[in-house]
Amino acid sequence: MNDLDMRICECDCDECEDCTCNLTCERSRKHLKPNRTILKCGSQGGVTLPVATVAGAAFTLATVNVDTKGLKNPCIKFEFASNIVTTAAVLTLNFQVFKQCRGILTPIPVGPIWTFSRLVAVTEANTFSFFVCDCDMCDDDCCTYSVVATVAGVATVGVTSIQNTILAAIIVDNDCF
Fold this sequence. Notes:
The chain has no helices and 6 strands. The protein is mainly β. Strands 1, 2, 3, 4, 5 and 6 form a 6-stranded antiparallel beta sheet that branches.
């Protein structure tokens, strides 16, 4: 059955043909089932931190746009993954997800701060990933979520490259009938 044939019956069934109560159906509305799930993959990116990058320097690593239009009580799980390659580097980086919704000028932090540290000058590659949820949002909201890395502590030593960064969102409609 295509979308044009979808109808809503007053007898609480999915399609008019399945109704046993013989009530009139409306053809103009589409019945959406609860607990729908949407997957959004954001932009892939990366950044190279030069030698002696000062504390407080911030870099946006990945973003994803999320539109919850038509969802009731949405909840979003964000998954971030990256490769961090250090060359004789000593540094501490704080990673955090921020959201900026329609009409909001200042990004709002989402979830905790995740820390990556290299306390001894070493050359190696590591994967770095985390996930965080945001269930504090309005229905029909459109937001841009970003992962920002901030240099913590003192200036960096050596060269660090944060590669293959990706931010994915799994959006769930938590509406109950």
